[in-house]
TrEMBL record:
PANTHER family membership: SINGLE-STRAND SELECTIVE MONOFUNCTIONAL URACIL DNA GLYCOSYLASE
UniProt KW DNA-binding keyword: yes
InterPro entries (UniProt xref): SMUG1, Uracil-DNA_glycosylase-like, Uracil-DNA_glycosylase-like_sf
Organism lineage: Eukaryota, Metazoa, Ecdysozoa, Arthropoda, Hexapoda
GO CC term (a single one): nucleus
GO BP: any one term: base-excision repair
Family: Belongs to the uracil-DNA glycosylase (UDG) superfamily. SMUG1 family.
Alphabetic keyword roster: DNA damage, DNA repair, DNA-binding, Hydrolase, Nucleus
Gene Ontology terms for molecular function: DNA binding; oxidized pyrimidine nucleobase lesion DNA N-glycosylase activity; single-strand selective uracil DNA N-glycosylase activity
Protein's recorded name: Putative single-strand selective monofunctional uracil dna glycosylase
The Uracil-DNA glycosylase-like domain, residue ranges: 141-315
Length: 335
């Protein structure tokens, strides 16, 4: 049996009631009646009476200070050990040796005439290390050995025979130079600003500038190193060389320098050792006498010192040039 579907428009509308509302809808479908619920939240609990404040606690007694701990003893200096796979560059090993040498020399009691000791390895370290790093990149065939710093040379620049214009202008080295401990007013240290010239250094580096042209040509096969890194001065400012020291101090300094010279030669490993002056030659001969240096393995020679204090030292440049030729060193200096 078929039922006829009614259209929405065919559905009868609800009849309005007497109140005007439609009877087909219940009032509860449009709103909820409010209900009275009991208040159970603690926030609405009646206020309680406040408790009285607690009495303040008594102050604690002061804790006594702990006694000071005793100072720990200084650790002994450890020898330098290098990992076999990581060997420091030559300049660094020589520099470490120099620091140890300076420390050993400073332990020696000096005669009363020595009023000041200058250590340019320490206070001119920047310039000294610039010299070492640039020019001691590897072992060199020829090693020139000087004695110790001069007041207007290495004492100012940290470079052996360190005539200021040669270090500053020819070698192009730069670095801060500080004041030495116990500086004498008559022997001021001014670094590269020093206007005093050291004649030994002027002669020395002037000769090799003429022969080699550039510092790289000289240092390609040669290096210059002092066997004693300290300078000693009288209160008047007079330079006291290691050769001029007296008594036990002279002997002790010579022995220490000999020991470290042997260690340095092992590191430098030169083919030719040129002592600049008789004092340095005597130190080398002492090693040979003690069988610590083999003259059959290393060529040993001595050239005149450029100091104007040396006897019969006029025309040093001409004499030194001829000496370099006669002793087979000149080929190492050619550009």
């Amino acid at each position: 049996m078929l039922h006829k579907k009614l259209k929405l428009s065919d559905q009868p509308e609800p009849e309005p009631t007497a109140t005007g509302a439609y009877s087909g809808y219940a009032p509860t479908e449009f709103f909820l009646r409010p209900q009275s619920l009991p208040i159970t939240s603690p926030h609405f609990a009646p206020p309680q009476q406040y408790q009285p404040a607690l009495p303040a606690l008594p102050a604690l007694p002061a804790v006594p200070a702990l006694p000071a701990l005793p100072a720990l003893p200084a650790l002994p200096a450890l020898p330098l050990y290098y990992h076999p796979a990581v060997v420091p560059p030559l300049w660094q090993r020589i520099y470490q040796l120099e620091l140890q040498l300076c420390d050993a020399l400073k332990q020696i009691p000096l005669p009363a005439e020595v009023a000041a000791t200058y250590d340019p390895i320490q206070y001119a370290a920047e310039l000294h290390l610039a010299y070492m790093q640039r020019f001691l990149d590897r072992p060199k065939a020829v090693l020139f050995l000087g004695m110790n710093p001069g007041p207007w040379g290495m004492c100012q620049t940290g470079v052996p025979f360190g005539y200021v214009p040669a270090v500053r202008d020819w070698m192009q080295l730069r670095g801060q130079v500080y004041k030495p401990v116990g500086e004498l007013e008559v022997r001021p240290v001014q670094g590269l600003a020093c206007t005093r010239g050291e004649q030994s250094g002027q002669r020395w580096w002037g000769l090799f500038e003429q022969l080699c042209g550039t510092p790289d040509n000289f240092f390609r096969n040669c290096f210059v190193w002092n066997i004693c890194p300290l300078a000693f001065f009288h209160a008047s400012g007079r330079n006291i060389t290691p050769a001029e020291l007296k008594g036990a101090a002279k002997t002790s300094i010579q022995q220490v320098c000999n020991d470290y010279l042997k260690a340095a030669l092992d590191l430098f490993n030169p083919a030719i050792v040129v002592s600049v002056g008789r004092y340095t030659e005597d130190r080398v001969k002492a090693l040979v006498k003690q069988n610590l240096l083999d003259p059959n393995r290393v060529q040993l020679s001595c050239m005149p010192h450029p100091s104007p204090r040396s006897l019969n030292n006029t025309n040093w440049s001409e004499k030194a040039r001829q000496w370099l030729v006669d002793n087979g060193v000149m080929p190492y200096l050619q550009p």
